[in-house]
Design goal:
about 25% strand; alpha+beta; globular; nine-stranded mixed β-sheet; 9 strands; Aminopeptidase
Amino acid sequence: MQLETQRLIIRPWQPAQDARDAMDIYSDLRVMAWLEGESPVSSIRQVQGRLQQCLNQEKRDRTGYGSGHGSGSWAVEQTDIGRVIGQVGLRSLPDIQGSGVESAANVANLELEGADDEGLSADYIEMSWHFRPASWGYGYATEAAFGLAHYAFEVLRLPLLIAICDPENERAIALMNRLGMTDDGFTTRCFGGKALRLYRLEAIGQGAVGID
């Protein structure tokens, strides 16, 4: 997947080329503090390995051997400086459906095309974003998230997107609100049972705010 917004290019990772820029994201405690179960990287070799895993996952999904539905993690490059400043991602969340979602009846009861009897359809996809602190406050994360949502709805034809964050992550919550996402309370079904804020965004035509 590759797409362009006004100031950004969202593209596959290039591990050798992008590793030094990615260090500014994944070695910074201000970023990693919000990524459940992950620790900061401490070397170029580590970050190259992380980026290669992201690239391999996208290739598996694209060729039909992964979880499908266009999931993956992509670099966000700031066009005017030619540097990677962040990451956006899509991934399946199979454990949300029908259990442990407090104050989120709309999500838990939503029937998606392709859902099976044992749980959530793969169409329940989480969107995520991580940006280096030097690029905070300029609207880059919002711009990239809008672009990612447009891709998910218009190209992948997903019916909705989910976003999850720590209840103290005020920046993430503010971005979700700017996207027009609906606050569905808390979920305890991800990341070891920790209570996390749960938001959703439905595609245009699904009865909720979409992406123009």
